[in-house]
Task: inverse folding
């Protein structure tokens, strides 16, 4: 490829850095406020903090009851992501391989929900009727499905790999469940990480679902917990900043390890209608 | 037939919790169903639809429709335009490009609650840094508590959150273009713009069609960012937010019928806009 002129290269750096500032300033600001005292903040809201005060985090952690919320969030995320991935494999494999009748039709049927009317009202009514309202299993069940983003990724990927492996496995008389765990899961590995992460991020960050279906604060996940905390300590900015950072911190650290699975090619091109 | 039997599990969940309720929305919208336990439901024809647009709050209902369209149009357009631009910029060798990409994508991971609350602090009229900056520049500072501009600021935060996602999708498309196409274009003496117009764009168009369509449908239906930033105050309601509001948030009535009628109105918008977009996007693919 032809070399680009210096001026163009500089412009590219300039744009990239300008946009970076828009993305990092809010996080830096959050850290800055979290290290202040309330008085320090009131005196100069945008000034730099005077010293590190990591004890602020301990105060926020205790006042916000974050250990309870984090535990709830972990529970919902692990169980419903695990089940969703398994169900997505159950759905994606036979459909991608056309091993069941009307495979294409079932695929369209699954994708159709994107266009259909918002199911909120009858869904809410149904959950109430069958006694799942305000129960942890009810919420997990609602968040679990085999037709989400992981399903779409799996179908796209399985279609692109050869059938020889599953046919060989069938000839060996290998059981279907063993086939799924020993052959299919290793096979879809390139999109597995992305599928798991996107599903998990969706559950972990859900705020509308728990707001609607889990009214009891003892079942609240971290998103609800943080939101309530924000409403309660509206004027104590350092405490608020600490609360937000307590929720954001682990996500940022985790993200450092998994970002290559998210910011990669696996996202694109795999979804086809 | 274990594969078929196991396929029944996701199928069943889908029918019970997603497809079924979607279809039942039509029925609900023609009844006077409410959240009151034990109350009898009656078939009331188009009354809910009539109430939706001929009640005392009709100005706000029309505002919801306007907001829904404005949100979908601006978010999809700007998010994808900026996403494509940034993808083109970071696609060529830059020092620290991995760090840039990761940073732009970060808000998706942080989620709507963290991102929304951070921006609420940034925009807080009492000492938020963005508010201080605007004050010093003599710009209006109402932000999320301004009737005139709160909705546009919600749109800004939404784009901030998902620009990195769009960029990533475009990047993957760009990286799948064979390098020799550019070499050939270079030998032919094409300019950068021509190379973009006649090589890059046609090559990424097919993979972006679906993503654009999904973005449009998503933008028409999303409302979690509104819930976190303003909870529908300051003229920031949309059709999707109204469904939630009428059915659940408004505890005194829990008006299932009205909310379902709202869901049907939104469905018509989603359906028509998705169809028109699909036809337009497919035609564009053919033209190139």
Result:
């Amino acid at each position: 490829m032809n070399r680009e002129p210096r001026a163009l290269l500089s412009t590219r750096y300039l744009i990239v850095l300008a946009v970076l500032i828009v993305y990092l300033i809010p996080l830096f600001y959050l850290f800055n406020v979290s290290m202040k005292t309330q008085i320090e903040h009131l005196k100069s809201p945008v000034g730099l903090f005077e010293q590190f005060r990591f004890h602020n985090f301990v105060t926020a952690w205790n006042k916000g009851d974050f250990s309870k919320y984090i535990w709830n969030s972990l529970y919902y995320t692990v169980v419903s992501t695990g089940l969703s991935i398994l169900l997505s494999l159950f759905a994606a494999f036979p459909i991608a391989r056309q091993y069941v009748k009307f495979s294409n039709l079932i695929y369209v049927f699954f994708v159709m929900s994107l266009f259909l009317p918002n199911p909120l009202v009858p869904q809410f009514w149904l959950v109430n009727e069958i006694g799942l309202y305000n129960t942890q299993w009810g919420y997990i069940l609602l968040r679990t499905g085999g037709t989400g983003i992981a399903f779409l990724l799996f179908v796209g990927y399985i279609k692109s790999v050869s059938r020889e492996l599953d046919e060989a496995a069938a000839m060996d008389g290998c059981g279907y469940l063993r086939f799924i765990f020993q052959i299919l899961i290793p096979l879809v590995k390139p999109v597995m990480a992305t599928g798991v992460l996107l599903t998990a991020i969706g559950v972990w960050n859900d705020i509308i679902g728990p707001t609607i279906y889990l009214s009891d604060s003892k079942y609240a996940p971290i998103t609800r917990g943080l939101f309530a905390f924000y409403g309660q300590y509206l004027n104590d900015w350092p405490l608020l900043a600490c609360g937000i950072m307590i929720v954001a911190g682990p996500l940022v650290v985790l993200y450092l390890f998994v970002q290559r699975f998210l910011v990669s090619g696996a996202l694109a091109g795999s979804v086809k209608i | 037939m274990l594969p078929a039997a196991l396929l029944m599990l996701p199928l069943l969940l889908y029918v019970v919790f997603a497809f079924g309720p979607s279809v039942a929305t039509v029925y609900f919208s023609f009844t006077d169903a409410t959240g009151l336990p034990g109350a009898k439901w009656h078939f009331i024809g188009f009354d809910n639809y009539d109430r939706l647009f001929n009640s005392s709050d009709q100005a706000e209902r029309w505002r919801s429709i306007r907001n829904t369209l404005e949100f979908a149009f601006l978010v999809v357009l700007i998010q994808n335009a900026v996403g494509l631009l940034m993808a083109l910029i970071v696609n060529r060798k830059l020092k620290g490009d991995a760090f840039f990409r990761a940073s732009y994508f970060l808000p998706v991971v942080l989620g709507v609650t963290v991102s929304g609350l951070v921006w609420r602090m940034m925009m807080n009229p009492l000492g938020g840094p963005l508010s201080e900056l605007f004050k010093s520049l003599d710009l209006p500072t109402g932000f999320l508590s301004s009737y005139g501009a709160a909705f546009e600021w919600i749109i800004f935060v939404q784009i901030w959150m998902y620009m990195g996602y769009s960029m990533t999708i475009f990047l993957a498309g760009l990286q799948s273009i064979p390098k020799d196409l550019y070499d050939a274009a270079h030998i032919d003496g094409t300019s950068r713009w021509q190379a973009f117009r006649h090589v890059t764009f046609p090559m990424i168009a097919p993979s972006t069609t679906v993503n654009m369509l999904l973005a449009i449908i998503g933008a028409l239906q999303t409302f979690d960012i509104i819930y976190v930033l303003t909870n529908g105050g300051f003229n920031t309601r949309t059709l999707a937010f109204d469904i939630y509001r009428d059915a659940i948030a408004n505890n005194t009535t829990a008006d299932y019928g009205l909310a379902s009628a709202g869901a049907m109105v939104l469905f018509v918008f989603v359906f028509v806009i998705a169809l028109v977009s699909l036809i337009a996007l497919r035609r564009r693919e053919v033209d190139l």
